[in-house]
Structures are given as C-alpha cells and as structure tokens.
Automatic annotation (TrEMBL):
This is deoxyribose-phosphate aldolase. It comes from Parelaphostrongylus tenuis. The keyword DNA repair does not apply. GO terms for cellular component: cytoplasm. Pathway: Carbohydrate degradation; 2-deoxy-D-ribose 1-phosphate degradation; D-glyceraldehyde 3-phosphate and acetaldehyde from 2-deoxy-alpha-D-ribose 1-phosphate: step 2/2.
Amino acid sequence: MDAANTVRKLCISNHGMKLAPVAMFERSHRHRRQSREDETNGRCAEIRTNREDGPSKYPRKFEIEPSSLGRCRAPLTIAQPALHAPKSPRPSLATNAEASALLKNKDEVRKLITYIDLTTLAGDDTKSRVVALTDRALAPVDGDSSITCAAVCVYPQRVADVVKHLAERKKKLNVAAVAAGFPSGQYHLQSKLLEVQLTVADGATEIDIVISRAVALEDDWETVYNEVSALKAACGSAHLKTILATGELKTVSNVYKASWASILAGSDFIKTSTGKEATNATLEVAFVMCSAIKRWYQITGKKVGFKPAGGIKTPKEALAYVALIKDVLGADWLTPKLFRIGASSLLDNCLKAL
C-alpha cells in the first residue's frame, strides 16, 4: 500500500445507540495516544441514508471515499468514549425457534448446501482426499446436478491439486485456502504475505486469513488494520475472508472493533473462527459482526459477506444463522456471494435431513 499523509476520520452517528463516533483514524505514537485533527486534509461530508424502515432522521458522517482508507497508514484507534458493541434484541431461543421452522422445509436444507465451504484442514490431507472432496462439492446431492457447494477449502499445499482436478474435469468451483499464519496468526507479516501470494499463484480464488489476536488484545487496531490491508493487496483478484477468531478476543466489544478494522481494510468477508479455537461460532458474536456489516452498508452502500465457521454440524444449527442473517442484514445476503458456512460434517447431516 502507498503511504499517505492524509488522516481520515470515520464518524458515525447512530440514533439511540450511543455509538458516535464509531471509529477514528488519528495520528498517534504507538505507546502515547495523542490525537490531533489534521485541519489541512479533507472535510467531513454529511451523508444522510435511508433505512429499510423509512428515511433516517439522523445524520451519518463519512470523510472522503472508503477506498482512501486502504492507503492510510495513520493509526486506527477506537475513539473515546470506548466503543460498545451492540446487544442483540433477540435471544438465541427466538432464532433457534425460527431454525426449527425452516428445517421442515426441504428447500431450505438444499439451499444450506449451496452456502457450504466444504472443508478439510487435517495434517494428513493428501491429494486423493482433496480430489474426493472436490468431486463431492461439485455434486453433493445425488440426482440433482443443479446443486453445488459454494467452495472447497483446503491448506495452501493442496490448492494446486484441486485446481488441476477441476481443469481435468472442465468444471468450475471456488477454491478457498487458509493462509497467512493460520490458525494462530503468530507469524511475521512477510511470511504471511508470501504464503498468500504463493497460494493465489497456485490458483486459489479465495483466501481465508486470520488476524493476530495477540495484537488485537493489546488494543493495537492500527496493526490489525495495516496487516489486513497488506494481505488484501497480496490477494490480487482473489477474495479475502478475514477470520476474527472471536473465541479468543475475550469481549464482544473487541469483536466489533475487529470487524470494523477488517471491513475498513478491504475484507470481502468477515468470518467468525478458524475452527481450531475452544469456542467457535456463536449466534451472539454473529449478531455483533453482522451489525458492523450492516452499519458499513448503510454508510457506503457496499456489501461485505459473513461466514460463521467451527462447530456448525446440524442443519438446525446452520439455519439459525440463516434466520439471523435474514433478520439483521436482509434476504439479499442469503446468497453464496455474501453468506458462507465453514463446515466439514454439515453436508452429511443435511443429506440425512432431505
């Protein structure tokens, strides 16, 4: 990313939620937060947006274009008073009740299959295993050639095997790979960038990276933002899915901040978990992440995808996320372009439910 001397501010006013300002790009020293507005650069343009339930009665402010944020090396910090993540107005019981109702509709279960990133991330994955996984993703339902999984997801070393097999079969399928120090994120940035570049060169069309939780837990959102920005650039034309590893972020406020840092840095999707944490996807953190996605869309008109992953094994569990997505983001998000589920055993259980 090119260096930029311009300091950008993202200011959002939210009716009745005490979330203004949401985030601020400010100049600061790493260990001494001294913020000062750069009066020589830009001006905040007030943008009034419409909501689905009618015209907004309150202003939202956004400085310059979102694309300029990607070139900004100014520290990303959370403005005081500290940002508080939104709380879900709907208990999990309500979402699970909707999932039970959806489960009775076989078409909803079939749709679930189209959202799945069919995944194998085992240390003993072989060429034959990922080839078999690819064939299964291409035709998951016997006798119904119209249904495919959204993607296969493998380790970088196995990407070339999948790409070659698809070429031999003359088939198309999204090929996702975990990269950039997955699952810990505890790697040098240069090695992360190289791994992403090599994986894309092998033919991956989607890259699932993971943020450094150690950095996030130190409240160093500048580094989180800058690393994701650099990895987005390394992806080139491949889509970037950024994993927050929410089970290790300790608080929902950190989940919300990490969501914003990842979205601002250019992520095409934000994803809950690596599947390797003690706590993986939950409806509560999904609501927080989707709230950040919704806010971004209201401000910019740009849609960011959402991917829950880890521990989602049954159709009912998966349909609870479908119900939540529809409730928070709307039916427009219920497409593989904007909604994925990371899973290895969900497909088998979906087929049993058909």
